[in-house]
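Data deposition worksheet. Section B asks for the primary sequence of the deposited chain exactly as it was used as input, without tags or linkers unless they were present during the calculation. Section C holds the resulting structure in token form. Section D is free text for depositor observations; keep each observation to a single sentence. Incomplete worksheets are returned to the depositor.
Section A, Depositor: J.P.
Section B:
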Amino acid sequence: MTRFSELLGTDFDGEPTTDIEDVFYGAFDDPGHRDRVPGLVELMNDPAAPEIERFLACVALTMWGEAAGYEAVLRAAADPEATPWYDFSIDRKFSVDSTFAQLADAVAERDLAEEKGTEALRVEAARALVRLADSQYFEDKLGELFDNATLRALLDDIKDVVGRGVRFLTTDEKRRFDLPTQLVDLASGVSTVDGPLGVELAVSVLDAGTYPRTLKHAVPIVHRAQGPEARRFGEYLLTVGDEDVRRQVHEILNGS
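Section C:
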């Protein structure tokens, strides 16, 4: 049995598994996962190991609330394209790296971080990832990913990265992924904890250009933000959205 198979190809009952998520999530209910941490750290840091194995070791350590995982995420965020596993996982829609989206999923898990006393480090890893939202692809995760406490801790960072992203949108340069929608997803997440700020951020993105997909992703803000700002934002979407966007906004505003 290979080192990888022992660490991530075997469930906590000792049975081989082809579904690595059985191992990722099984750790939440089995303290025996701690016995695998030293081996995973060694695998993650082994330059001779395949990139995919190093990456999955990092995901596991991060999901399991281990400081070594968060520290690896911080290193990756500091120099994304120098990360050993960068570009090993490619998004099918945009043909760009998708590893940061998967790391964000792992960082969003907080149960074991609280248990192990690494919550502050987890938040710093989340902060480092959010600050890449204008340059790295996170799939469609950023609107739903982080819990409210984490979002509140990251508000200033989100304001900064959305501002940078909006400035980029006003240039002639282009990202290889849908940057406006990704920024609106962040604004949508913010709107769950600070409705006026979420609306403000979304409007700043849409002022740089309204795109059908981006407008669809903006619709949940009307529900999440609540209050007069949400209504005004809904009325704005009614003027710029397509038929489907207008239908969804009408349903929210009318309480359907």
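Section D:
DSSP finds 15 helices and no strands in the chain.
Residues 100 and 136 are 7 Å apart (CA to CA).
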